[in-house]
Amino acid sequence: MSTTTQTRRPARPLPPLMTLTEAAAERLRTLYAKGEQGKLLRIGVSTKGCSGLSYDMSWTDAPGPGDEVVTDKGLTVLVDRRASLFLIGTVMDYETKALASGFTFVNPNEKGRCGCGESFHV
Hints:
Elements: E1 18-20, H1 22-33, E2 40-48, E3 52-60, E4 67-72, E5 75-80, H2 84-87, E6 90-96, E7 101-106, E8 112-113, E9 120-121
Parallel strand pairs: 1-6, 2-5
Antiparallel strand pairs: 2-3, 4-5, 6-7, 8-9
């Protein structure tokens, strides 16, 4: 009679829900210190665009019951819990280009983007 024992592999740690680049952190510090003082940035995903999903950002006074609180580089942002599965491991950046500037997202869950870059799918 033989017995086999199975050992459990240690659980692999999950990547952080979201991280900020230094450029994104600096821009958020500026926004939080000026016109959006006392507010928090909430990041979500909405149905929109050619590919189906789009990043959605809004300001709120306090975390809601459906928010995940993310703290990185000494700053707090909120992630809508309904969007968290779409955003795990995402890096939020801030880019300044010749004709436009704004927050961008590097999302490892994206499978593709539409031609105009406004929406994505997972």
